[in-house]
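Course exercise 7: structure representation. Students receive a sequence record and must write out the corresponding structure in token form. The form below is the worked example handed out in class, using Helix-turn-helix transcriptional regulator (288 residues). Read each field label carefully; the graders check that inputs and outputs are placed in the correct fields and that the protein name is recorded exactly as given.

STUDENT ID: A-19
EXERCISE PROTEIN: Helix-turn-helix transcriptional regulator
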Amino acid sequence: MASNVNPTVRRRRLGQELRRLREDKGLTAEQVAERLLVSQSKISRLENGRRSISQRDVRDLCGVYEVDDRRIVDSLMQMAKDSRQQGWWHAFGDIPYSVYIGLETEAASLRTYESLLVPGLLQTSGYAEAVIPGTIPELAAEDLDKRIKVRMRRQERVQDQERPLRLWVVLDESALRRVVGSHLIMREQLEHLVEVSTLPHVTVQVLPYGAGAHAGMSGTFSILEFDDAADSSVVYIEGVTSDLYLEKTNDVHKYTIMYEHLRAQALSAEASREFIAEAAKRHADAMS
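STUDENT ANSWER:
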């Protein structure tokens, strides 16, 4: 059982249950924190799944919420135990975006908009080796190697024949024109994009300069959805020092509408493949 447990998702589910129990008792996070002599931020982090939850935390919270049903308590305690197990990414040490990796690993579908670079799930190793130190100039060599390995490992979801990730990418034309590494690296990267876009569960659309102003100009974002109804959709916005996860229904709805507008303004999947292939040819021509 343990090998099939995704700790990130288990923490989310457990946090949602704990929030529901608190709200059912009509308590605020501040009130609960006062009773347990902990900070309000700890209660918030436990409920949003950003912090590991111990069985002791669950026991204490169930006491505050007066949960008498032993089956419920035992179920929550088991979820806490499962949530502390390690996902595959822990083998690589401290990964700053490990919460996102856990969500991505469990997601059934991912819709993403990128304005400046090829999404990590579709990067070649050569492109990754060039773009990662470019975006993080002071990254140590061993950390660069680790990030590249993690990025390549994440891509297994795209190629998984039994449970492939349904991936939809809207890519700004800038990502195709910017020379990351070299024209050779870019040619290989764009040829890879063309190839992977032919997979039945992958759609790549290019948003050309000619589209003018568009909904993505406020920044890049991703929307993750899950098969289990207990797992709400998440909007992920990557930051330099911290990331943002939006789970409120209204927030997810707004970003979903934004994404629909982006897809509508972008080239069709077939026209996008031709556009990317032509961009790859321009990089090849630049090499000669």
